[in-house]
Design a protein that fits this description.
There is one protein chain. The chain contains ten helices and 17 strands. The termini are far apart. Helices cover about 30% and strands about 25% of the residues. It folds into two domains: about 25-50 and about 215-380, 3-Layer(aba) Sandwich (Rossmann fold); about 60-195, OB fold (Dihydrolipoamide Acetyltransferase, E2P). The protein has helices spanning about 10-15, 25-35, 95-110, 150-160, 215-230, 245-250, 265-280, 290-300, 320-330, 340-350, and strands at about 40-45, 60-65, 70-75, 85, 125-130, 140-145, 165-175, 185-190, 195-200, 200-205, 235-240, 260-265, 285-290, 305-310, 330-335, 355-365, 375-380. α3 packs antiparallel against α4 and α8 runs parallel beside α9 (about 320-330). It has about 375 residues and is an alpha/beta fold. It binds S-adenosyl-L-homocysteine. S-adenosyl-L-homocysteine (SAH) binds near residues 212, 244, 247, 265 and 313.
Length: about 375
Amino acid sequence: MDNNIKCPYVSKCGGCSFIGEDYDKQLKDKRKTLAELFKGISVDQVIGMKDPFHYRNKVTCSFGLDAKKRPAFGIYEQYSHKLVPVEHCLIEDERADAIMHTLRDLFKSFKYKYYDEVSGYGLIRHVMIRAAHTTGQIMVILVLSSVVLPAKNNFIKALTKAHPEITTVILNVNERDTTFVLGPRNITLFGPGHIEDVLCGKRFIISPGSFYQVNSVQTEVLYRKAIKLAGLKGTETVIDAYCGIGTISLACAGSAKNVIGIELNQDAVADAIKNKKLNRISNVTFICGDAGEVMERMASEGNTADVVFMDPPRSGSSESFMDSVAVLHPAKVVYISCGPESLARDLEYFKTIGYRTKNISPVDMFPHTEHVECCCLLTRKEK
Ligand code: SAH
């Protein structure tokens, strides 16, 4: 596929290291890098996208002051706190791009001040937009340094008039001196306070702070692959560790006897429980807690599992988690990973406790960037 598209921000943004390169070549290069990393394990072709642009369903823009104290917006330049004014991004959702433009105009006409990181004055810190791929619902999160948005009603009226596709607006309060975008408190200004999307035939409520894969098209490809690897027959007890809002748990529930989803983030667990009800699924239980600790407790209480799905953050899993997997003694572990290095490390540890994989299936969830998602099936070596 020839995509001779040039991004003017590439050198400063640092997000898309491969933008402008032929997409088929990107996929081949990703596979080559994985094959070098996973020595002795076969690596499938990387499954790419038909249209590898504008796939990101979550878009963030930061607001601040430049060195001369003039209002500035954009994304932070790589390794610095200088804002690069990205007007159009080639991988972000185009509806979000358009809303971001309107917001900047509205901030100006409502005379809202951008936040000054040095003095701590100013209201607007960031805007995050989350767009549901299937339903088209859109959430706008205004991250402010205060709970008070002056002329709130008029502002919301103007925004939703310009963009009737927006289904909810949230004021997120971030008063801290922090590099985290979202603060702890959300106030719903418009709509239900969440969006809903459909993934693998199931409906999901997504709250502002809950994790949701950023590339919905490829997430379906990945989950279907992962569930296929598990080869469920309907009789299994399944654990979905690091389950987020319950996407994998609910997508595989119809093919298992029962599923236990484990997740640390309270908001995500609350969403997962709502999602279970929304989809009228009864054989799934969600537990809020550290996946390793919950699994250890389950193991110490004499529980077993037939299949464990694990989808940890980029940093990977922990030895204590993997030890408790071994005690629960599943015949199969399906490991989904967005961090190939941590996956390679964890696969080595799994080997020492009797689980191995023969094959890695990569899915390109992040075209034009150096990232790639992998899934693999680990089976127990019988003694
Ligand atoms: N499987 C889900 C979420 C994957 S992202 C999906 O595909 O949507 C990883 C998730 O792990 C996040 O939701 C994060 O909140 C959660 N997490 C991070 N550390 C954890 C831990 N120690 N125990 C349980 N969950 C954890």
